[in-house]
Amino acid sequence: MIYIIDFGSQYTHYIGRRLKEIGSPYKIISPEDALREIKTLKPQGIILSGGPMSVYGDDAPTIDPQIFSLDIPVLGICYGMMLISHLLGGKVVSGKKEYGPATVTFVDTSTDMTKGLPKSMTVWMSHGDEVVSIPAEYKIVGSSEHVRYAFIAHKTKPIFGIQFHPEVQHTEHGMQLLENFVSICGVTTSPYILDSKKIEEYIRKTAGNAYVIGAVSGGVDSTVAGVLTAKTIGSKFIPVYVENGLMRDGTKEDVEKIYRNVGIEPLIIHVEDEMMDRLKGKTDPEEKRKIIGAFYIEVFEREMERLKKEGIAVKFLLQGTIYSDVIESKGTKHADKIKSHHNVGGLPERLQLQLLEPLRDYYKDEVRKIGTMIGVPEEFVQKQKFPGPGYGIRIRGEVTPERLQKVKQADHIVLEELKKAGWLPKVLHSFPVMTGADSTSVKGDGRFFGEVIALRITTSTDEMTCGWAHLPYEVLQRISSRIVNEVPEVSRVVYDITTKPPATMEWE
Prior knowledge:
Helices cover 32% and strands 23% of the residues. By secondary structure, it is an alpha/beta fold. The strands form four sheets. Strands 2-1-3-4-11-10-9-6-7 form a nine-stranded mixed β-sheet, with helices on both faces. Strands 14-13-12-15-16 form a five-stranded parallel β-sheet, with helices on both faces. β15, α10 and β16 (354-356) form a beta-alpha-beta unit. α5 (196-207) packs across α6 (220-233), α6 (220-233) packs parallel to α11 (364-373) and α13 (401-420) runs antiparallel to α14. The longest helix has 25 residues, at 285-309. It is globular and about 65 Å long.
């Protein structure tokens, strides 16, 4: 087994996923428990995760340096590498920040960690501090353009530090690097098989004979979670779609089709006007997310009370939470909270239902595969990502009926043009943002001062990292021209070319 010591990285769980894909058992442990657990259970390898803090922070998590003298291979990733240097005599400073792609060139290929790797490769960076000197017994293995110590190794022991993240999709040969470490650790691997039956068994065991009410949105995550639950407990699952006016047109019809295919009639609850009243005058992104999340729960609690009067006692609320939702909502002790998701951090403290989240430990690409396994039609399995709070977080500032209509109109244009160009299946998601910023333009030979719309179109498989879609200029031109000409009071269109990290998927 390999232990992953969690310092709060957005990617800690993802390191575990990669080890699982390689076939290596793993366990995530906290820094506070690390030395005791390692001495007691003697893992074959140790990975120090990244983290959001500086090693010099007042509450910075750390470990006992004895860990480096236990003759167990160690791999420090990002914060983990900085901690190795900091604890063993090197120096870390607030230096050259790197977020997104960088090229690492190897200056020493004699280590087993570089086996099978090219001389240089594109990696994914996400750091604000920098190692400027390494402990005396360490050597440089690789450097990037801006960071000299991008990859270091002990001269005689199997202890390694890397500034980049090998676990994410956008690091080339990242899996090979992790496979090399697993090999150095001497772990016996076995093939990883994604098994939908295990998830169904979890649902059956957790729910028992109780009724489950489902928060379904028509998106991939809630669809797969809902169909799994419907197949497992049948009519004891009650899917509820809340039509709050913030979702894409046609979503209600999709939900009806999905559940009628498995023999269940979903409940459709219309609360469009009430939702707009709740959001009136609200501009803060976190406040809007929490209002939307709390209102969802309130609606389900109302429905639960109605069902109770009919003799149906609902015990669980099903949600399509996946791991990227969890980690962005501060999923571990030392992680930073990026934003509240309506089905994680946006939940009110008062909750009359127990949560059932069968997909909580899975990523988007895994969820799509699970959906295919259980027979969800391809049109829904491959459906483009759409956030639970919907257009509410794609309108910067106050959500008004007028701005909501504009963003829907612009969204329809984006989807239509991407589909025409054959690009729709190639992107993770695509959407316009009402930025709340105004700019000057000329329309009909006259000055016009109107709102700027930003386009966010990304590529990714797992949502933990993403790049921006390199659309042909002519496609961008058609989208821009149509939005400016067809959507009222829009002055210009800009294209967001920021990767994740540093940006998140959504603007809010």
